[in-house]
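Lecture notes, part 5. Sequence design as translation. It can be helpful to think of inverse folding as translation between two languages: the language of shapes and the language of residues. The source text, in structure tokens, appears below.
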């Protein structure tokens, strides 16, 4: 299965179904099943900012107890959109001949600078038991053959 490593707290925000777009400096043509891996790094400063702090707390997390070095969830990577306008409180994504606006918490959970890419994630399933794994750059492969269980809460 394809996997992407993401720094905390963003990996957990995705696994908990709170973050719908992963923003990257690079695009991908890949579409399909994707696993979310939490890297060893925790951005503690980001964990203290609103709305991240409140959303993590709602799920029982803070900067001290975020899981690292594990695959947390699986999802579907549906689309990859280019950010063409960042207004400071919202961003516009290029969706063919249409425009999609990202605002509110979702905007706060990503880096929507012009020229970056927003990967649209859907059908997120947090794993009941996270799977230890060493992260890598870019998309990478992991033999996810036995998932202990899924939690759709």
């Amino acid at each position: 299965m394809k996997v992407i490593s993401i720094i905390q707290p963003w990996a957990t925000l995705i696994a908990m179904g709170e973050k719908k777009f992963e923003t990257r400096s690079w695009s991908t043509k890949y579409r399909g099943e994707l696993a979310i891996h939490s890297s060893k790094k925790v951005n503690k400063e980001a964990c203290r900012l609103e709305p991240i702090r409140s959303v993590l707390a709602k799920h029982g997390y803070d900067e001290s107890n975020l899981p690292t070095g594990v695959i947390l969830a699986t999802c579907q990577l549906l689309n990859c959109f280019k950010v063409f306008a960042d207004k400071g409180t919202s961003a516009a994504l290029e969706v063919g001949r249409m425009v999609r606006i990202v605002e509110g918490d979702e905007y706060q959970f990503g880096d929507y600078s012009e020229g970056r890419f927003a990967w649209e994630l859907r059908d997120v399933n947090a794993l009941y038991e996270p799977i230890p794994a060493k992260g890598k750059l870019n998309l990478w492969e992991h033999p996810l053959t036995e998932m202990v269980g899924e939690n759709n809460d």
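The translated text above is only one of many valid answers, since several sequences can fold into similar shapes. Helices lie at 10-15, 44-47, 52-58, 104-108.
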